[in-house]
Amino acid sequence: MEYKLNFSVNKQPVKIAVEPHLTLLEVLRDALGLMGTKEGCGTGDCGACTVLLDGEPVSSCLMLAVEAEGQEITTVEGLATNGDLHPVQKTFIAHGGLQCGFCTPGILMSSVALLARNPQPTDDEIRAALAGNLCRCTGYDKIVRSVQAAAKEMEYA
Fold this sequence. Notes:
This protein is of the alpha+beta class. 33% of the residues lie in helices and 16% in strands.
């Protein structure tokens, strides 16, 4: 039995029929072709699958797609506007806040959510907001500096 869903992904309306057991991650990647959201662990521990649901970070590997009915989902593909990267994306590039890139989409999404609710976070607040996002390549210092730089850039935008 399929469920007919209506939600928005990256500000675009989506109407789709899905099996009730499919996760939001599976629908985003397999049905909608949005490959930026990654599956790292499948248990909600690594944060690679983080997307924003009505502005709040969620692990899309743990959420059933049917739970997204009527809501706004933002993936990493939805951060740029008219081809212009989001300030968080720009500062991650400028400050080396990424290496292999696998965890980067989830970290970007958690960072965007943090800066939306706290435009001037402390180092400790940044680290707490990113605690659910694991990176196996970097130390977190460059990631924290990237978020700090984005906060400053967004403050003056």
